[in-house]
Amino acid sequence: MWYNEIRYMRRLAGGRTENNMKIHKKTAAFIAAMAICASSMPWSTVHADNEENTVTASTEATEAETQAQDELVTSGDYKYQVLSDGKISIEDCTSADKELTVPSSIDGYTVSELGKTAFGKDYENNNFETITLPATLEYISVENPFLYCEKLTAVNIDGTCKDFVSEDGILYSKDKKKLICYPMAKNGDSFTLPEGVESIGSAALYNTKLREIKFPTTLVSMGNHALSFNENIESYDFSKTKLVGIGMMAFADCKNLSEVLLPETLYEISGGAFINCKRLTDIKLPSKLEVVGQSAFTSTGLRKIIVPPSVTDIGYCAFGYYLNTVGEEVADDDFVIIGTYGSAVQAYCTDSDAEYDYQNNFTFKTEDEAKEEEELLNLEQVREGEYSYAVVNGEAVIMLCAAEDKVLTVPEKLGGLNVTAIYPAAFQSCKSEEIILPETVKLIREMAFYKCENLKKIVLPQSVQVIGNYSFDSCTALEEFNAGGAKAIGGHAFDSCPNLKKVTLSGNCTDFEPNLFVDCLTLEEINVTDGNGNYSSVDGVLFNKDKTELVVYPSSRPDKVYKMPDSVKKVQVDAFINCSAIEDIVLSKNLTELEKYAVYNCPSLKSIRAFKKLKTIGDYAFGFRYNEQSTDGENVDVLSEGIKLYAPKNSAAYDFAKEKGIEVISGTVRIGDKNVRIVMLGILGGAIGAAVLAVLGLLIGKKIRKKKEADELSGKAEEKRRKKAEKEPKLDAGDKIVGDDSDEVEDKENEA
Fold first, then answer.
1. Complete domains list, the chain, with CATH
2. Range in 19-28, 87-96, 321-330, 609-618 with the lowest mean pLDDT
3. What's the whole-model pTM score?
4. Residue 574: is it exposed, middle or buried by C-beta count within 10 angstroms (0-12/13-18/19+)?
5. CB-based burial, 589-623: b 16+ in 10 Å, e otherwise
6. Which of 92, 130, 251, 276 is most buried by a 10 A CB count?
7. How far apart are CA 494 and CA 481, in angstroms?
């Protein structure tokens, strides 16, 4: 298990959020500073608006730089700067008037803009109660120039203005799609934004006296600090809106806020959005949410949160942190995060970074686990002998076993009821060497036998249907395991079982996690009993039923060479992980897919042979090992030394190896246990061919010579007969021949 958790998080997370987190961390100090400022002053002047239809951050930056560089002109109560178009932007007003009317021109220049500090940089000497704006106004800073007007009851504007409009002292854009300013001191307990409003501008509803705000269905976005410091409001309902984004610190310091209903359309919650909302103890995040910014929920009343798997970008201190008395963000180690295995939030629970000096250590659970835990807490336990049990659906479930018998036989009944389940941690740290479960047990819950370090053997009945996650984790003495009748085995069931050598799966087993045996470094064989519909085994190697997928090759099998059956088309994740003895793997000729980490951390592996049908190769599929010296959590997977890939050119395996820096050899064939170059095979074949031809030549020459000799002998015999016939007198029929030597000649011919 020394490396598995790091890899498991990263693999199943599909990349994690490490890069995104790093980007966020670089601005963590900024967010923290904003949070501190928020407790003492209403606004940080260094930020950008997140809304559509507003000036971009770069434009704001340019505005600020120009203001700093250009010398402001003072005219009466106003300071302004001349713009490139010959109009002016008001940057400050020192008037003591309670009812201020901004002129349409100053010094002959048309007033067209209001800078971010047009009506003050702080609350000092800010007595404005009403402000009337001229019809010439074309632009108002997105950083809300009314921010420090805490006595303001109305903002009015000339009705002929082309860009802005005021209704009941509330300032909007001309088309009323954007709320610009709701005056802080405006009387009234309730405010309903009119239908058609799509965005709430930065600090537009900041620090009001309101007790209720109702939002239109047309609302899409809200800017930074949009609703912050509304201390009288207890609830916000956005459930019927089309809200997609919440700006930075949008609800900051809403100290009585206890309920926020968010719409399913929400995509992003920006940094510090709910910071210091101390009465917010529960919130449901929408299922399409993808981004949660830095410090989004810092110093809230939350002690747990459910994060949907859609969230892929999580900022520093997003969950589980609070601000101490000096404004430092401190982790709450009791914080519980509920999510999905392999998700970004699971990675967040244990994320760390030495550079920024933090280490997250939050408890992670799935929703099912959280529900089960809550159920457990509500169960009433009964003690009987060395057992504590609870009654669930009229059956006994073991909650705790205090027995320490060397051989422990668990009773069939407790309290007269059948024992049907072993609940989480019921036998944790039990000292028994052998445990026998009764035929009544159907369910073994997660971590049921966790850290039973003396347990060598456990007998499971055929009645067992489910074995939970981590159920036998850290059973360090366990050597052999028979799953009984179990249909499903949960993930990590055998983590840290260093002596487990043999596993037998039930014929009923249809499902188990792919990482089940990753940590079983002495496992030699996995067998499957007859009748299994999903799995099969050959010589202790686990396959799917029709042997088209290789599932697990036991890590401690003694074979040095493994030739994969040609029926295999896919090798699953971690199939050959940690195989200590194997030196040579010949993949199936019909293999098309080699999943990530399929052949990983095999210290003795020297060669792999792949074929052209292999098209899909996952990350770190072969040629890599775990780097024990890695301290940064990133350089974990490194190339193994000395591994050679034998594969044809222009194949996926050839390209993969070349790209990763693995030595690859092409133009070879496999003869026995040897890889032989085709060129050498040609030379050898030529030599053998020549030798064969030479032998054939000798044999054919000998045969020709024998035939020639026979022909010569036959010719001589024929010639002798002819000459003899010429010398002998002709006989009449019936005359007897004497002294005929034809038999002798015939014998010689036959001999020849």
1. 1-52+220-369 (no CATH), 55-188 (3.80.10), 379-557 (3.80.10.10)
2. 19-28
3. 0.60
4. buried
5. ebbbbbbebbbbbbeebebbbbbebbeebbebbbb
6. 251
7. 10
